[in-house]
Design a protein that fits this description.
By secondary structure, this protein is α/β, with parallel strands linked by helices. The protein contains 12 helices and 9 strands. α1 (10-23) packs across α2 (29-41), α6 runs parallel beside α7 and α11 (250-256) runs parallel beside α12. It has 2 domains: 10-73; 94-309, Rossmann fold (3-Layer(aba) Sandwich), CATH 3.40.50. Helix content is 36%, strand content 18%. The radius of gyration is 22 Å and the shape is elongated. It binds S-adenosylmethionine. S-adenosylmethionine binds at residues 98, 100, 104, 146-150, 152-153, 169-172, 175, 198-199, 215-217, 238-239, 249.
């Protein structure tokens, strides 16, 4: 840290770093400065302000400077700290997992809105073969997430719906490890099982699930070059790359997923900007759904397509 000699208090360091990040074009400069400093000092962001005049030790300053250098090179704040908040919960993340995005909370909300208080009762079929724990009598509600990454979506749903059991599918083995650790840390491991698999290929079709969530990769090829460095060069390509039109995985998934939904069960799929109509059309082509809705995120972008499997 250059400049006139002074005592580097928490507040002085934050001010300096915010300006430095601004000059270097780092996104969310103040928040990044705070999150990184809180991480180095083992404090919450609020505690930084409660102790604003506390001086940093040379060791703390050196550790913070090292993180600042990596952040300026493009490394995302969440990978530097190993943590990201989602649904007001603290998730571990690693370079093997996508960093959960705030707009993905809509995927969770879109299912909670229709699942809370729902009694599927007698229409619930037996649990699928291989689902093990889920085949317990008295707990008939079963949900699926395809492409769990850090586990943010499935764990948020499991926390909000205590009577449900969940199955999470993911292609990446290291991401699955992170998701399993998060489920244990956040107290839902007994109700959430994870499986390594490719989309729905791990299971025979059957009306197994009363709810399915998916946030599959959807970045179209034409957008790849314009993605910020911190995404393109640091987040896992297999969590983002959606082929020519962005829907290389989403469309085949939408063409098949009704074969796995119970009658009256709900599907929610996150989509990228401009993709909602194509996804609605894929679902509509199956003639398996009684209603298909598009939900907008807090920026007004159509972000989730939600549909209900026709009741029996
Ligand atoms: C956009 S990320 C979403 C991660 C997490 N659900 C979230 O919302 O933060 C997509 C995830 O799908 C996984 N994935 C990609 N292709 C897959 C496939 N064919 N089958 C299962 N999972 C896949 C990726 O590894 C990645 O973790």
């Amino acid at each position: 840290m250059a400049g006139p000699p002074q005592t580097w208090t928490i507040l002085a360091v934050l001010k300096w770093t915010t300006r430095y990040f601004q000059d270097k074009g780092v996104s969310e400069p103040r928040a990044s400065a705070e999150v990184l400093l809180a991480h180095v000092l083992g404090l919450s962001r609020l505690e930084l302000y409660l102790r604003h005049d506390q001086p940093l030790t040379p060791e703390e300053l050196a550790a913070y400077k090292a993180l600042i250098r990596r952040r300026v090179r493009g490394e995302p704040t969440a990978y530097l700290t190993g943590h990201k908040e989602f649904w007001s919960l603290d998730f571990l993340v690693s370079p093997a997992t996508l960093i959960p995005r705030p707009e993905t909370e809509l995927l969770v909300e879109s299912l909670l809105e229709v699942l809370r208080g729902r009694q599927f009762g007698a229409e619930v079929p037996p649990a699928p073969p291989g689902a093990g724990e889920q085949n317990r009598p008295g707990i008939p509600l079963l949900g699926l997430e395809v492409g769990v990454g850090s586990g943010a979506v499935i764990i948020a749903l499991a926390r909000e719906l205590p009577r449900w059991r969940w199955l999470g599918v993911e292609l990446s083995a290291p991401a699955l490890e992170v998701a399993r650790t998060n489920a244990a840390r956040l107290g839902v491991a007994p109700r959430v099982q994870f499986i390594q698999g490719n989309l729905l290929g791990f299971l025979k079709p059957g009306p197994w699930f009363q709810a399915v969530a998916a946030n599959l990769p959807y970045v179209p090829a034409r957008d790849w070059a314009t993605l910020p460095v911190e995404i393109r060069e640091y987040e896992p390509r297999e969590a983002l790359w959606g082929g020519e039109d962005g829907l290389a995985l989403v469309k085949p998934f939408c063409a098949e997923v009704h074969r796995f939904l119970a009658p009256g069960g709900w599907l929610a799929v996150e989509v990228g900007q401009g993709q909602a109509e194509a996804v609605r059309a894929s679902l509509s082509d199956t003639r398996a759904y009684e209603g298909i809705a598009t939900l907008r995120d807090y920026q007004g972008i159509p972000r989730v397509v939600r549909a209900r499997r026709q009741p029996a």
